Amino acid sequence: MNSLLARKPVADIVATADRRIPKVLGPVSITAMGIGAIIGGGIFIFTGTVAALNAGPAIVLSFVLAAIACAFVGLCYAELSTFLPVAGSTYTYTYATLGEFAAWIIGWDLILEYAIGGAAVAVGWSGYFVSLLQAMGLGLPPRLTAATGQAVTLADGTTATAIANLPAAAIVVLITALLVGGTRESARLNNIMVAVKLTVVLAFIGLGAFYVNTANWHPFIPPNSGTFGAFGVSGIVRGAAVVFIAYVGFDAVSNCAQEARRPQRDMPIGILGSLAISTVLYIAVAAVLTGLVPYRELNVPDPVVMGLRAVGQAWFSLFIDLGALIGITTVILVLLYGQSRIFATMAADGLLPPVVARIHPKLGTPWISQITIGAVVAAVAAVSPIDVLAELVGVGTLFAFVLVCAAVIYLRHLEPLAPRPFRVPHVPWVPLLGILFCLVLIGGMTPATWVRLVVWLAIGLVIYFGYSRHHSRLNAGK
Predict the structure, then answer these.
(1) Tally of domains in the chain
(2) Has residue 388 been placed in a domain?
(3) pTM value?
(4) Which end of the chain is more exposed for a tag (fewer CB within 10 A), N or C?
């Protein structure tokens, strides 16, 4: 029991951080990393589905509810990322507070957020890529653009079974190669893509606002259909739980701490700044989109493009497709980046094979970890449908966020005098509110999602007791 509860001292975590990793990220790049991860699937993939099936025009309230939860959690991330300016995110914070066993559980759980999240977004990227090719008069065989086993319609009107989603796998492989090449280069490309993406999003808001039909906003909160989560107040809560995946990118910013030039200043700016900017844009896009098209018609793969076509602005759809591709690409980039850093940190602690922690001598990146993650995510993206992946990402993220808020409360009690460059106000109340909002969103999840989470955690327990516990550096006294 003592070994399961063994904590890694804060001083040791900071002292043993890998000094070979170069500090190349400033506040602009870190904020862009956050925006790059947040602005993507939420706008281009999930907005229409949630409006059509759960919340109607009140999807803006779903985004607000999810943003409030993220704001409380974001403050906690800002404190912890400056208190422990190292890689590893929630895994590292949990190791310092609740001990090794809890750290392993959350590290294993984070795979659902980062790796599975990357796979889910890659599937969405594939949809927009196929749409863009079709707009250009090109196309790919349908059997190679959908999850394995899904029914697809061929050019002659017959149906067939899909083999694999090759575009989804291909984009993951391409981004993995970019990340192995170096953090500085990846960050520069991400900054450019974020600028293009924001331009497209702002153009949609500006153009679409002139065509909004306010009649489409009535009723603002459609009456519940008799099923929990199908409109009404419960629909807003269920919608918030679904669109929550749109915000998961801001916590990935915490993985930048070890590569930030001035983490005590840059990390709070990056985390809270990217969250604030993205929330405003999400609400604006949701309001415009539901004003352009009756909400019940928005359950399509490309709702933003549909909105423009509905008001006679199909000419702009090509730019939306391009912006969506760029936007979703940055999300995949940040999620794969974050997962590789977490795996490398776990390997350095002995909980995963040590080869995973190797840093490339010339590139300065955890290349073994990055390639491993890339291969797994590419395979999952090729064979899995997006709805199942999205549910797993949401519950995994909320679970991690609860532990982050708890870690702030515990560390304040455990080490009250330790210097904190950024402090969450009104502890324990702000972290407790973060926990409460996360639990509310968890309540909006389907039972099937919880079953999948339990199965996933059971697999993690087998690995921990079969390998990790016996190779832990902390328990070995190394």
Answers:
(1) 1
(2) yes
(3) 0.74
(4) N
